[in-house]
From TrEMBL:
EC category name: ligase
Species of provenance: Novosphingobium soli
Residues annotated as domain Coenzyme F420:L-glutamate ligase-like: 20-239
Protein name (record): Coenzyme F420-0:L-glutamate ligase
E.C. number(s) listed in UniProt: 6.3.2.31
Length: 265
């Protein structure tokens, strides 16, 4: 493949960071990342992208809720009856949602307050202390703002062109399984619009190709981090610097399809 190509194939690598602490409210994720890299004889470089699990962002922001403290209203009681969920959990989902789209015993598909569509409004008890006793974890209030704050802290470590992606695992319409998805983003182009700007192998101009850059980075990062007891909630992606930017950028919300274009309602 010619070296003169406008968009050469990047040499991308990803690795989960070992040695990170257990995160609690107020703890610095950025400092923990820099400490873990230093212990490995490494440091942030320009073009690096840190993929950070939503759970640790929510934990340091104190986004835990004790379901026993919720008082379900009539709507929550009805949702619980339709889906077989506990009434308190139904109330928590309603509180975090802009719209309940598909109530089902397997999952309550909701449009989160941020606009993302996912199961149970992102509320989860796995890898949460007290999860067996009714403590659940909510998403950050504004994941894009969280990503911007984290990026500002990381930039202070001396890497001006670093990207941050906050990732959570989501299901997809018509597919089995979950994939890491960007729910918050800073310093990274969320989308790469190739329409009218690139050609295929036969010289035809691309008409419909818009690459989900942030979601792709989130997916590879989540794959490296794992979903269970690995204890590695941060992944470092290198070689994708062409998609990073000096400014924070529009955030992961810019990759959401507008409600009026929703083809699955």
């Amino acid at each position: 493949m010619s070296a003169e190509r406008e968009n050469p194939v990047p040499d991308i690598s990803v690795r989960a960071l070992a040695g990170l602490p257990m995160f609690a409210p107020g703890r610095s994720i950025a400092q923990a990342i820099c400490t873990a890299l230093a212990a490995d004889g490494d440091a942030l470089r320009d073009g690096d992208i840190c993929v950070i699990a939503q759970k640790i962002v929510s934990k340091v922001e104190g986004r835990t809720v004790d379901l026993a403290g919720l008082d379900p209203d009539a709507e929550a009681l009805e949702l619980a009856a339709r889906t077989g969920r506990g009434a308190a959990m139904a109330q928590a989902i309603l509180d975090e949602s802009a719209e309940i789209m598909r109530p089902h015993p397997a999952a309550i598909i909701a449009r989160h307050r941020t606009g993302h569509v996912l199961a149970n409004a992102g509320i989860d008890a796995s890898n949460v202390e007290g999860g067996d006793a009714g403590t659940v974890l909510l998403w950050p209030r504004d994941p894009d703002a969280s990503a911007r704050r984290l990026r500002a802290e990381l930039r202070e470590a001396g890497a001006p062109r670093v990207g941050v992606v906050i990732a959570d695992s989501m299901g997809r319409a018509w597919r089995i399984g979950t994939v890491g998805t960007a729910i918050g983003c800073a310093g990274l182009h969320v989308l790469e619009d190739r329409r009218g700007r690139a050609v295929d192998l036969y010289g035809r101009t691309l008409q419909a190709t818009v690459i989900a850059v942030a979601d792709s980075i989130a997916a590879v990062g989540a794959l490296a981090m794992g979903e269970g007891d690995e204890g590695t909630p941060v992944a470092l992606v290198r070689g994708a610097g062409r998609w990073t930017c000096e400014e924070d950028g529009p955030g992961a919300a810019s990759g959401l399809r507008p409600v009026e274009q929703d083809m699955f309602r």
